[in-house]
Recover the amino acids of this structure.
């Protein structure tokens, strides 16, 4: 382990970061270019920026509505999964009972289910229930991957809280439920928050269910909406890029704010477990 | 003694509380994940087509299409009028009477079946008013297996008698015989077909006339994309993790940058790369042509090899940073003391890598590979947006094939068969990795967590 990284190291790092970030930069550049410039210039800067594409993104398509739908669906999914998973994870992490590894094995297995394997019965069920083109109609299928994910992450976080606190609560005569709500829940808040971010991102990014189940333009989510910017004669690259930027920016902000938490969540899922 | 007993009750109470707490999660998982998978398997044994009037529901029962049956009755009446009017055909009126009696008995017995009479009257009323029967509940009535068999036997008899009566092509008797085909197809057999859908797809795995079947091609594509992308991602990810595993200025920035491709939706990254690969405006395609790597910018998305490269490149871009992050965390878990001791013993860096880093990193590598392989194998969004499975269907993955079968052709039976195949492949891949990791290690990991 060298203490002071060499110049070579920083050059490597720079190349790596450019490789990751250049596509974002270029898409942003396309989004502020005039249509004529998009088709004529391969320069990596522009001297004539415009916000026309952003205005189009919101007026050509109900892009605001897409964002709203995604927000409600991803938010609802997160809320439901976190509530149900908190109980299950608390029990798994801190109480003694038989069949714990089986439960965790099933949870892990289900979190890896290919979505395509459940889409046909899900589609028929939601159609028969009249839940297609509703928010609830996407929250239900999203629970399939978000609940196992939430249980998996929350169990890790709950395990990291010292056992002595609960013991003390028990000695003072608290029931497991009281111990959970009064002692563990406040301490677990950061872990719960991290899990919520991870689950939210997962639900926000989903495409297959959203594309097949909510086909009414008014009920589309943002991932589906972004693929709807097409015109008959030329490809509206400016508008497509503007839409991509609008979807990316909130995620970038979230990542910048919570990067440490997200990394700890991701790595505890794969490395520790 | 008393204390032990008390403790065991306490523990039992704790277990009961625990079961109560996991109950909602278990129920929901069973309902929204396990039940649908079993249901997919069930559907895969049916000829279920959502756009087909008589096959749009899973059914194990025999049914009769009352609209078709009632409609045919009008034609039968007119045929018999023609038969009786014709001197040649009506040479033996008793014979014609017998045939008509038999055909009437079919209808009489049908009416006697439970619940049919009421429906039949309604259907007839609609037809009399020249209205179509739109209500499937009304149109398709359930009948018993026994009745269906008797019905079909009688229809076949009448058909044979009419054919025997016929003197020349297209006379009334011959037309009557062909009407029996209508009656025969009014009976809908259960659309349960056992493993026929599976047999259909096993055929598509074979090479015929030097060409591999569609599923075979699809599977090869999926495996190729999985192996190449995951391979590159692992090698690059490991390299990056090893290089950045040291203190330096700007770690936070690196971490944030690395997370962004992981955090954005695959669809968005696919859209971004689509604009960079575009033959007219894409800067990536433009650079590749300038560098002389491809002769024409349009080739990236219009040829099979170009499209496969584009898919893999976009996937590597999106996931390598994530893998590097996981491996970095694994590397940071290895104690520095080990390397110091190795240095003192005079081990070279390469020896250290193979004797310390790699063995200790193995569990992290295997677990990350497991996640990545499963993800790559069920690849859908990226291909769907980037190439739509094209050009032709040359870059179709197995998930895309299942999707197209279900939602473009509306063939849910065959589509579910493909999705069950994806499910089985994913299970096999998991078993392979768990073996690789050692079942004990996996078990221990679950226990540790529990």
């Amino acid at each position: 382990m060298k203490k002071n990284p060499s110049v070579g190291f920083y050059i490597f790092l720079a190349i790596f970061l450019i490789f990751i970030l250049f596509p974002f930069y270029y898409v942003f550049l396309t989004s502020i270019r005039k249509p004529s410039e998009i088709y004529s210039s391969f320069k990596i800067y522009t001297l004539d920026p415009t916000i026309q594409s952003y205005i189009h993104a919101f007026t050509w398509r109900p892009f605001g509505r897409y964002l709203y739908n995604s927000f409600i669906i991803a938010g609802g999914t997160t809320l439901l999964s976190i509530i149900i998973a908190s109980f299950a994870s608390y029990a798994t992490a801190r109480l003694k009972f038989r069949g714990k590894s089986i439960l965790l094995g099933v949870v892990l297995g289900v979190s890896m289910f290919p979505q395509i394997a459940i889409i046909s019965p899900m589609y028929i069920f939601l159609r028969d229930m009249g839940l297609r083109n509703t928010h609830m109609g996407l929250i239900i299928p999203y629970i399939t991957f978000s609940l196992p994910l939430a249980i998996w992450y929350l169990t890790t976080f709950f395990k990291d809280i010292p056992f002595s606190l609960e013991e003390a609560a028990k000695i003072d005569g608290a029931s497991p439920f009281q111990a959970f709500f009064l002692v563990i829940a406040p301490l677990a808040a950061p872990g719960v928050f991290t899990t919520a971010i991870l689950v939210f991102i997962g639900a926000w990014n989903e495409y297959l269910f959203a594309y097949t189940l909510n086909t009414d333009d008014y009920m589309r989510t943002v991932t589906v909406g972004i693929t709807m910017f097409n015109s008959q004669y030329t490809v509206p690259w400016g508008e497509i890029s503007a839409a991509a930027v609008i979807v990316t920016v909130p995620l970038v902000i979230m990542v910048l704010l919570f990067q440490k938490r997200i990394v700890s969540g991701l790595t505890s899922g794969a490395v520790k477990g | 003694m008393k204390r032990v007993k008390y403790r065991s009750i306490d523990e039992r109470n704790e277990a009961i509380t625990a079961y109560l707490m996991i109950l909602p999660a278990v129920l929901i998982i069973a309902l929204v994940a396990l039940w649908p998978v079993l249901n997919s398997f069930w559907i895969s044994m049916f000829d279920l087509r959502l756009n087909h009037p008589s096959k749009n529901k899973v059914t194990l029962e025999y049914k009769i299409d009352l609209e078709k049956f009632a409609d045919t009755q009008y034609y039968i009446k007119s045929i018999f009028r023609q038969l009786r009017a014709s001197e040649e055909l009506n040479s033996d009126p008793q014979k014609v009477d017998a045939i008509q009696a038999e055909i009437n008995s079919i209808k009489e017995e049908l009416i006697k079946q439970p619940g049919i009479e009421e429906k039949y009257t309604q259907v007839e009323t609609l037809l009399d008013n020249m209205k179509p029967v739109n209500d499937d509940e009304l149109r398709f009535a359930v009948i018993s297996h026994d009745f269906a068999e008797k019905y079909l036997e009688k229809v076949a008899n009448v058909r044979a008698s009419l054919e025997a009566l016929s003197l020349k092509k297209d006379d009334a008797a011959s037309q009557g015989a062909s009407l029996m085909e209508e009656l025969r197809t009014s009976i809908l057999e259960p659309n349960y077909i056992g493993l026929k859908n599976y047999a259909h797809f096993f055929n598509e795995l074979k090479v015929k006339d030097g060409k591999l079947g569609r599923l075979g091609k699809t599977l090869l594509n999926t495996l190729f994309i999985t192996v190449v992308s995951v391979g590159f991602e692992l090698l690059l990810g490991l390299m990056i993790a090893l290089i950045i595993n040291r203190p330096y200025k700007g770690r936070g920035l690196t971490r944030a940058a690395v997370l962004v491709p992981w955090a954005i939706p695959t669809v968005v990254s696919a859209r971004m790369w689509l604009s960079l690969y575009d033959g007219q405006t894409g800067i990536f395609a433009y650079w590749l042509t300038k560098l002389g790597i491809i002769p024409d910018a349009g080739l990236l998305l219009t040829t099979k090899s170009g499209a496969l490269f584009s898919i893999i490149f976009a996937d590597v871009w999106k996931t390598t940073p994530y893998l590097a992050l996981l491996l970095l965390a694994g590397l940071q878990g290895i104690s520095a003391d080990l390397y110091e001791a190795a240095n003192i013993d005079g081990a070279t860096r390469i020896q250290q890598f193979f004797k310390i880093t790699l063995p200790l990193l193995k569990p992290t590598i295997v677990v990350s590979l497991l996640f990545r392989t499963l993800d790559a194998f069920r690849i859908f969004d990226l291909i769907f947006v980037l190439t739509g499975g094209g050009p032709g269907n040359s870059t179709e993955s197995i998930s895309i094939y299942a999707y197209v079968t279900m939602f473009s052709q509306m063939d849910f039976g065959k589509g579910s068969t493909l999705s069950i195949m994806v499910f089985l492949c994913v299970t096999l891949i998991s078993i392979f990795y768990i073996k690789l990791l050692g079942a004990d290690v996996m078990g221990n990991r679950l226990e540790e967590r529990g």
Observations:
- Chain A touches chain B through 105 residues (CB under 8 Å).
- DSSP finds twelve helices and no strands in chain A.
- Chain A has two domains: 1-50, 62-272.
